[in-house]
Amino acid sequence: MSHAVLGGSTSAPFNAWRATLCAACASLIGIGFARFAYTALLPAIIGNHWFAPATAAYLGAANLGGYLAGALGARVLARHVPNVTTLRTMMLLAVVAFFACALPVSFLWFFLWRFASGFSGGVLMVTAAPSVLAHITPSRRGIVSGAIFAGLGLGIAATGTLVPLLLRQGLAQAWIGLGVVSLVLTAVAWRGWPDGTPAAAASTTVQARRRPASPLALRSLYIEYALNAVALVPHMIFLVDYVARGLGKGLDAGANYWVLYGLGAIAGPIFVGHLADRIGFARALRTAYVVQFCAVLLPVLGLGMPALIVSSMVMGAFTAGIVPLVLGRVNELLAHHPASQKAAWSTATTSFATLQAGAAYGLSFLFAATSGNYSLLFIVGGVAMVIGLGVNLVAARRERA
Question: Where are the bilayer-spanning segments (predicted)?
Answer without folding.
Answer: 21-46, 58-78, 90-112, 118-136, 143-166, 172-190, 216-238, 258-276, 288-307, 374-395
